[in-house]
Design brief:
Chain A has about 120 residues and is α+β, with helices and mostly antiparallel strands. Chain A contains four helices and four strands. Chain A has one domain: Glutaredoxin, CATH 3.40.30. The N terminus and C terminus of chain B are likely disordered. The chains are: A alpha+beta (about 120), B alpha/beta (about 600).
Chain lengths: ~120, ~600
Amino acid sequence: MKTKDKKTKGKSANGSSAAEILELRLYVAGQTPKSLAALANLKRICDEHLKQECRIEVIDLVKHPQLAQGDQILAIPTLVRRVPAPLRKIIGDLSNVERVLVGLDIRGPAGPTAKAETA
Amino acid sequence: MRRIRDTNGHGKGSAALAGLEKAPTGIRGLDEISGGGLPRGRTTIVCGGPGCGKTMLGLEFLVRGVEEHGEPGVLLTFEETPEEMTRNVASLGFDLKALSDKKKLFLDFMRIEPSEIHETGDYDLEGLFIRLQHAVDSVGAKRVVLDTLEALFSGFSNMSILRAELRRLFRWLKDRNLTTVVTAEQGDGTLTRHGLEEYVSDCVILLDHRIHDQISTRRLRIVKYRGTKHGADEYPFLIDESGLSVLPVTAATLNHKISRERVSTGIPDLDAMLEGKGYYRGSSILVSGTAGSGKTTLACNFANATCCRGERCLYVGFEESTDQVFRNAASVGIDLNHYVKKGLLFHQAWRPTQYGMEMHLLRIHKMVDTVRPESVILDPVSNLIGSSTQRDVRSMLMRLVDFLKEKGITALLTNLTKGGDHLEATEEQISSLIDTWILLRGVEQSGERNRCLYILKSRGMAHSNQLREFMITNNGIRLLPPYIGAGQVFTGSARLAQEAKDSADALARKQTIERKRGDLQAKRRELEARIENLRAEYAAEEKQMETLIQQAQSVEHRLEMDTREMAGSRQAGASTGKQSKRIGNGAQG
């Protein structure tokens, strides 16, 4: 797996939301099923549920163990939302989309944002 | 220290058979009671309530491992940052920064912030393992401390994952042959709040922090130690400027090497009572007595005698300040100050209530180790009572006397007996520990109180059985020979009075005898005079009688002469006779 898999996804339908860039880091440890599942789930969520621009950085701790200290990673996989502040961590394979969105503090497609857009 | 190892001799033997290797902790006393240290390559749980010293134990295990046994270590903290930790232990003389700069110690802080963490789906704690592996690899660690691993329980809500991961963690540590200390909070009625002991069953150490009469005592107990014998008691321990110290309660064996050498008491008269030689070197001496009976003065004399021989003396006072003791000693002609200057006398004074028993004991231990004295004086041990329970004091004194005996140090303890107590009862019941017991007591008589001294016991010597009057003079202590009269021992002015009275009596008796002797002579003289008189009388009478007898004889003689003359004259006229016969016949007829 690549260490830094930068993925930019533009969804500049709305000007205000385009300004919000999400910087995410996914910490994994080798090619474990959990890690692979987490990455696939994350990509899917970004594509299907997020309108903001997402920068996803994947860090493999097996290759770079010293990086675990910075974000205080214990559990694997961990998704860290670095921007916007405050820092948030979501641990697990990200299989529950609802919880991921709550964890990222991003309102889902059925949320008020969607309503506001339609309005 | 050796003696504890001896008691664990079996443990060591079986350990050698079973191949249970131990990693010495370097913590004073802990290696003795655990029979050599913690199980090498295994995990030890250190549990206890908050503030009982768990982290300290873990840290010292790491630091000593680096400094004394050349084993690098890793410290993973879950509660304090390395900076905080470094600052906290700097006061104990541990320089964590220097050690981590030298790549001997790896500090990592695992911050767990439950509010930041959202769980979704399956996960594991591989991050922890990776960090641990990284830490171990970067210093080549042999020892690992996980400080309050239980913090994980607050960070992760999926118990089944957590428990599985903990199990994996302990296995992982064991597989890498890392000697690990895991600290854990004590739970309510359980050893650890989250049941960590279920995973680790090799060695569990319980720390405890108890308050008695506002003085705290820390205790350590090895709850279990698989595969080896260990001390099962609760051992007091303390944390001071040089880290942790565990104190073995008692020596199981009594095999001190004893000395036959004698040391002076500092008082010639008292030496004389002890076969003229004084105490045995390395023996324990108790001086007990009521208030003001001269215990400290006796102790000062002993200190003086020790320093006089050029030996070192450690004097620990619990009652008087250094200056006060020296001033008072000077008043009886003992100059202790110049021995301090010479570096022979070390006087320490502190309040008995300043510390708990263990702290007292440890301070004395440490001072003995640094000063290396030939004699130690504790004045008075009874004052320690106020700071702890009687049993604790007894246990402390027992350990102390044991310790000093083992080192061959002569120990002099003073003990204040309360007025109401039986004089020969020491409050701490320490008499069995004591080799020589000197009792000082006040004797009240004729409006004054005088001091008396006697030797209650002195093992291994023919000591005096006398009760002596104990005089503190400007030139030191004098023991006056006993003055016994009318079945009583007299002291002070009563003694003087009795002495005067007795000598007057003796004089009177002498005079009486002389007078009687004079009378007798006079009587004899009188009698002799009378005899003389009688003799004179008799002589006079005899003379008179003889005169009378002579007179009578001369009369008789003359009469005889007269008769003869007359007869002669009758023969000349014989008819005269016939004539007269006829006259007679004629009358008949």
